[in-house]
Amino acid sequence: MNRIKRISTEVLTLYKEKFGTDFAQNKKVLDQIAIVRSKGLKNEVAGYITTYIKREIEERNEKEAQRIEAKESVQEPEELHEEEILN
Fold this sequence. Notes:
The chain is built from 3 helices and no strands. By secondary structure, it is mainly α. The chain has one domain: CATH 1.10.60.20. Helix 1 packs across helix 3 and helix 2 packs across helix 3. The N and C termini lie far apart (about 65 Å).
């Protein structure tokens, strides 16, 4: 595991609720909770955290869409069967 990923993971385990999808805001939060002397390191960590959270949100939305799609596909055959019975 590289240094950026390790540092980001440690910070996220403790302060995940403070971070969001905005890079600039994540840099400010990182300044508040940690002392990062290197500007480049801070930017890389904030960028990794931003990307991680965006990816997590995207995966959650995809799972929700798949669950809704699966629910709709299960309901469709039942509706067709009811219509055939009524006709």
